[in-house]
Amino acid sequence: QVQLVESGGGLVQAGGSLRLSCAASGRTFSNYAMGWFRQVPGKEREFVGGISRSGGSTTYADSVKGRFTISRDNAKNTVYLQMGSLKPEDTAVYCCGATSTLLQNIIVKDSRAYPYWGQGTQVTVSS
Is the pLDDT of residue 37 over 90? Predict the structure, then answer.
């Protein structure tokens, strides 16, 4: 089992920045690729970005590319989502997920492949 706890959400004005954190416990963190997803009521969970086990590979949804950055610190069992140039349409509950992968540089975009999830943190961007 892997337990995930997100933090760092809040209310921010358009154009502002936030950094989300996702702290993991329970298993060897470096065995897991991590992903950030977001969800608004009435819509499916949307992939925001992912990072490989080693942190050497990242990928982002087109909607956030160039504005968001994912990083991880395996010594601290934490993955981060640095969000900049925020827009009202970024408003959502942001969740991190963990999935075990055999290869170091695999990134998983499909939320159905993630067995472990945090409870989510609300991000609200005002116009």
Answer: yes
